[in-house]
Design brief:
The structure holds 2 protein chains of 2 kinds. By secondary structure, chain A is of the alpha/beta class. Chain A is 34% helix and 27% strand. In chain A, strand 1 and strand 2 form a beta hairpin. Chain B folds into 2 domains: 149 residues, no CATH class; 338 residues, ABC transporter involved in vitamin B12 uptake, BtuC (Orthogonal Bundle). In chain B, the strands form 2 sheets. A 4-stranded mixed sheet of chain B has the order 2-1-4-3. The chains are: A alpha/beta, B mainly alpha.
Chain lengths: 240, 585
C-alpha cells in the first residue's frame, strides 16, 4: 500500500525531564496505513516518545504533528480527539472497573454510537465475552492485554500507539499479540509500536526506527533492518 | 489435648491489661462509673473497663478452622488459656493500682485520683481489693475461654443477647422516648430505673434476643436476597419499593422521636449533606480535601449576612430562599478559587494545601479586615428561619428542621447518584484509578477534578445555608478544622464512594457520638468523642478500609467467582488470616 502523508510526524523533537535531556532531536514520520516500530534498549527514550505524542510530556524544542497539524502544547484530550489512542506500557487497566467499563471509558470522547466497535472488539477477543462483568485487575496478563487493546480501539483511532505490547507476556501470547496488531492494521488503523522484541516487531512492521539514548541511529524499512548486520548484532541477539 | 500456647495467651492477657489501664488512665472508667446500665450492679464504666477480657480469653485459643484440616479440639485447655489470659490482665491491672496507690503520678496522669483506687478495690483498700482486681478479670477471661465449649450457633446467640441488652441499656433515652410517643410510657418506667435497665428486664431482653436470633437471621437473609435479587428488573423494582419504605419511615420517624431526638437527627442530616458532598470529592474523584469546612462557612455566612436584620454591613433582610442562590453561587466561586490552584497537586500535597485554605477562610471571617461585613469574632446573629408556606423552619422547632434537612439530603443524594452514573462519574472513577491513563483516554483531568470540587462546594454551601437558619447565629469558631475532619471520618467510616454508606456513617458518628459541637445520643461521651473518633478511624483503616457499607461497585466485585482470588488481594496487609473475631462480635 502506497504511503500518502504522515499521520504522525516528529520534527527534531527534544524533551527534558528537569535537567535530564531525554530526546535529542528525534525526527520520524508515520504514514497512513503503516505499522511502524520504534526499537531501542532501556532508557533510550521510547516511552518518552509516545508520551510526547499525547502531550503527556511537553517537547522543549521541535514540533510534533498529527495529521499535518502542530500539536505542541495541546491538552492531551484534544490530541486524543484527533484520533490518537494508546495502549500503555504494562497495560495499566482501570483495575477496579469491570472489563465492560474499561472498554466504555475508551470511547470517552465519542458521541456517536459505539456498539459496532464494541461488537468488533468482542469478535476479535472472544474470550472477553465471558469476562465483561469481571474486574479488570483479576484477569490474566494476556486477557488484560486484550482489554487494553480493546479499550484503545474503542476510540476508533487513526493512529494506535502501543508501548511494549509484548512485555511480561508468555511467548505464545506474544506471537498472538503481533497477529492482532497486524489484524488491526489491516482493518485500516495506523500502528506505531514501541518494542524491545525487535525480531517480532520487525516481522510485522513496514518501517522501523532504532532509538539510542534519545537519538535515532537507524531508520529503514523493516526488511532492510532485519537484513542489516549492524542491527542483527546489536538488537537481534546474534553474536558475531 | 492441644497444649496451651503460653506466649499467645500472655499476649492477649497483657493486651487486655493494657486496655484496662488505658481506660482508667484517660478517666473513662471514673467518668462512667456512676452511669448504670443494668440496675443495680453494672455500670457503663465497668463495661468499658472489662469488655476486652472475655474477648482476650476467647482469642487466646481461637484457631481458624481451615478447610481440609481437622478442626482443633475443644476442651479444658481453652478454659485454662482464658483463665491465664484474664489473670495476666488482672495482674497488670493490680500492679497499676498498687503504683497509683503508692506513688503520686497525678502530675503526669491528671485523671488518676484517690477515688479511682477506691472504686477499683470496691472500697476494700489496696491489699484486700487486689483480690478483686485480679480475680474478676481472671473469671471474665475464663468465661471468654468457655465460649469455645459451646457450639457456634449457641455462642452467636449468647453474644448477640449480651450485645442487645447492653445496647438497649445504653440507648435508654431513645427507647423510653419512643415508648412514650407510642403511649407506652408505663412500660418504659417499668423497665428503666435511673436511666438503667432493671436486671430482670435485661435478662428478659437477652432471652428474647437469644430465642429470636435465628429467626431474625433468616429474615435478614430474605431481605438481602430481596434487595440484591440477581435479575436486574426485579432488583430495580425491589429497590424502588424499599426506597419508598425508607421514605415512609423517614416521614413517620420525627413523630416518634420527639423534639430532642429530632434535633440530633437534624444534625445527622446536616452532616450527611456535607458528607455526600465530600464523598464526591474524596470518594469519587479521589482528592483528599481537608479544607472542606471553608465552603460550609461560605454558605453559612452568605445566608447570614443577607438575611439577618442585624447584619453588620447589609440591611437587606432577604428571605432564606432569596439568599440561597447567592450562597450557592458564592460556594461555586470559592470552589473555583480554591480548586484552581490546588487541582494539579496530588495526594498529600493536595491534602495539606486544602487544609491551609480551610484555615485561611476561617481566619478571614475572623479578621478585623472583614469584620465590617462578617462581624469578626462577634459573628452574625439573629439569622431568621426558613419560611415554608405559612410555617417557618427554625432551630427552635427541630421536627421542622428535620423534615427540611431530609428534603435537602434527598436532593443531594439524588444529585450524587446521578453524577456517579454519569459520564463525569465514570471519568472520576478513571482518574482515581490512574490519572495518566485517564488523560490518555481523552478525559480532561483538570476540568473533571474542578467539577468535583465545585459540586462538593455546592453541597457544603447548602449545608452552611441550612446551618445558618437552624442555629440562627454563626461565629468563626463554628468552622474549625475539626468540622472538615469529622465529615471526612463520616465518609471513611461509612464507606467511601457509597451514598448509603455515608448515611450509615453520619447516623453512627453524628447521631450516636455527636458532631464537633453538636451532642449525640451518647452525650455522656462528649468529652471522649475525639478519642473514640480516632480509635474508630484507626480500627477502620486496619480492619475494614472499605468502610462499614462498601460501595455497590466493590460488593459486586467481591461477590461471585472472583471472591477466592480477591480475598487476599483486598487485605491491606496481604495476610490470609481468617477473620478471627468471635461470631457476632
Amino acid at each position: 500500500m502506497a504511503p500518502r502523508r504522515p499521520v504522525l510526524e516528529f520534527r527534531n523533537v527534544h524533551t527534558h525531564y528537569g535537567p535530564v535531556h531525554i530526546l535529542k532531536g528525534v525526527s520520524l514520520s508515520i504514514y497512513e496505513g503503516q505499522i511502524v516500530c520504534l526499537l531501542g534498549g532501556n532508557a533510550s527514550g521510547k516511552t518518552t516518545t509516545l508520551k510526547t505524542v499525547l502531550g503527556l510530556v511537553a517537547p522543549t524544542a521541535g514540533e510534533v504533528l498529527v495529521e499535518g497539524e502542530v500539536v505542541n502544547g495541546w491538552p492531551t484530550a484534544r490530541i486524543v480527539a484527533r484520533g490518537v489512542s494508546m495502549v500503555p506500557e504494562n497495560r495499566r487497566l482501570f483495575k477496579r472497573m469491570t472489563v465492560r467499563e474499561n472498554l466504555e471509558i475508551g470511547a470517552y470522547l465519542r458521541t456517536d454510537d459505539t456498539s459496532a466497535d464494541y461488537e468488533r472488539i468482542l469478535d476479535m477477543f472472544p474470550r472477553l465475552k465471558e469476562r465483561l462483568g469481571q474486574r479488570a485487575g483479576t484477569l490474566s496478563g494476556g486477557e488484560q492485554q486484550m482489554v487494553a487493546v480493546g479499550r484503545a480501539l474503542m476510540a476508533r483511532p487513526r493512529v494506535l500507539l502501543m508501548d511494549e505490547p509484548s512485555m511480561g507476556l508468555a511467548p505464545v501470547l506474544v506471537a498472538q499479540n503481533f497477529d492482532i496488531i497486524r489484524q488491526i492494521n489491516e482493518a485500516g488503523t495506523t500502528v506505531f509500536v514501541v518494542e524491545q522484541n525487535a525480531n517480532m516487531a520487525l516481522s510485522i512492521a513496514d518501517y522501523g526506527y532504532v532509538l539510542q539514548t534519545g537519538k535515532i541511529v537507524l531508520a529503514d524499512t523493516a526488511r532492510n533492518l532485519l537484513a542489516n548486520p549492524e542491527m542483527r548484532q546489536a538488537y537481534l541477539g546474534e553474536v558475531g | 489435648m492441644t497444649p496451651m500456647d503460653l506466649r499467645r495467651t500472655l499476649r492477649w492477657g497483657s493486651l487486655a491489661g493494657a486496655v484496662m489501664v488505658f481506660t482508667c488512665a484517660v478517666g473513662l472508667f471514673e467518668a462512667f462509673e456512676d452511669r448504670l446500665l443494668v440496675y443495680p450492679f453494672l455500670s457503663l464504666g465497668h463495661v468499658l473497663l472489662l469488655w476486652f477480657l472475655p474477648l482476650a480469653g476467647y482469642q487466646a485459643t481461637n484457631e481458624p478452622v481451615l478447610e481440609g484440616m481437622e478442626a482443633p479440639s475443644k476442651g479444658l485447655h481453652n478454659v485454662m488459656a482464658g483463665l491465664v489470659a484474664g489473670l495476666a490482665g488482672g495482674v497488670l491491672m493490680g500492679v497499676f493500682t498498687v503504683v497509683v496507690d503508692a506513688a503520686d503520678v497525678r502530675d503526669v496522669f491528671v485523671r488518676l485520683s484517690v477515688r479511682l483506687v477506691d472504686l477499683l478495690t470496691h472500697g476494700w483498700g489496696v491489699p484486700g481489693g487486689l483480690v478483686l482486681i485480679v480475680g474478676v478479670p481472671a473469671m471474665l477471661g475464663m468465661a471468654g475461654g468457655m465460649l469455645h465449649l459451646v457450639s457456634a450457633p449457641v455462642r452467636r446467640r449468647l453474644i448477640l443477647a449480651l450485645e442487645w441488652a447492653l445496647v438497649v441499656a445504653l440507648l435508654e433515652q431513645v427507647f423510653s422516648q419512643v415508648l412514650r410517643q407510642l403511649r407506652l410510657g408505663a412500660v418504659g418506667n417499668l423497665i428503666f430505673t435511673r436511666r438503667a435497665l432493671e436486671w430482670w428486664a435485661a435478662l428478659a431482653i437477652a432471652a428474647l434476643v437469644a430465642l429470636l436470633a435465628e429467626r431474625a437471621r433468616g429474615g435478614m437473609g430474605r431481605i438481602k436476597g430481596y434487595l440484591f435479587a440477581a435479575d436486574a428488573v426485579r432488583r430495580t423494582r425491589n429497590s424502588i419499593w424499599s426506597a419508598l419504605a425508607v421514605l415512609a419511615f423517614l416521614v413517620i420517624l420525627p413523630q416518634l422521636l420527639g423534639s430532642l431526638l429530632s434535633e440530633l437527627l437534624a444534625n445527622v442530616g446536616l452532616f450527611l449533606l456535607m458528607g455526600l458532598g465530600l464523598n464526591i470529592v474524596v470518594g469519587l474523584a479521589g482528592m483528599l480535601d481537608l479544607g472542606y469546612v471553608a465552603f460550609f462557612a461560605v454558605g453559612a455566612y452568605t445566608v447570614g449576612v443577607l438575611t439577618s436584620p442585624i447584619s453588620p454591613r447589609f440591611d437587606l433582610e432577604w428571605s432564606w430562599w432569596a439568599a440561597l442562590p447567592v450562597a450557592i453561587l458564592m460556594s461555586v466561586v470559592a470552589g473555583v478559587l480554591v480548586g484552581t490552584p490546588v487541582i494539579r497537586m496530588r495526594g498529600d500535597y493536595l491534602a495539606i494545601v486544602t487544609l491551609g485554605f480551610g484555615e485561611i477562610v476561617r481566619i478571614l471571617f475572623l479578621s478585623d479586615w472583614l469584620a465590617p461585613v462578617f462581624g469578626g469574632a462577634q459573628g452574625v446573629r439573629n439569622v431568621p428561619g426558613i419560611p415554608v408556606g405559612v410555617a417557618e423552619v427554625r432551630g427552635s422547632q427541630p421536627v421542622g428542621v428535620l423534615y427540611f434537612a431530609f428534603g435537602l439530603v434527598l436532593v443531594a443524594a439524588w444529585v450524587s447518584w446521578a453524577l456517579q452514573e454519569s459520564r463525569l462519574g465514570r471519568a472520576w472513577t478513571a482518574i482515581r484509578e490512574d490519572e495518566t491513563v485517564a488523560a490518555a483516554m481523552g478525559i480532561n483531568v483538570v476540568r473533571a477534578k474542578l467539577n468535583a470540587f465545585i459540586v462538593g462546594a455546592i453541597l457544603a454551601g447548602l449545608g452552611g445555608a441550612l446551618f445558618a437558619a437552624k442555629v440562627g447565629s454563626m461565629f468563626p469558631s463554628s468552622f474549625e478544622l475539626l468540622v472538615s475532619i469529622i465529615v471526612l471520618v463520616v465518609v471513611i467510616v461509612g464507606g467511601m464512594g457509597n451514598i448509603p454508606g455515608v448515611a450509615v456513617g453520619a447516623v453512627l458518628l453524628i447521631g450516636v457520638l455527636g458532631g464537633p459541637t453538636q451532642p449525640g445520643l451518647l452525650a455522656e461521651f462528649a468529652e471522649f468523642k475525639l478519642l473514640i473518633y480516632g480509635a474508630l478511624l484507626v480500627f477502620m483503616m486496619l480492619r475494614k478500609p472499605e468502610g462499614l457499607l462498601p460501595s455497590v461497585r466493590r460488593s459486586r466485585e467481591l461477590r461471585g467467582e472472583e471472591l477466592s482470588q480477591d480475598a487476599w488481594l483486598d487485605r491491606p496487609s496481604g495476610d490470609v488470616e481468617v477473620d478471627a473475631r468471635p461470631a457476632g462480635g
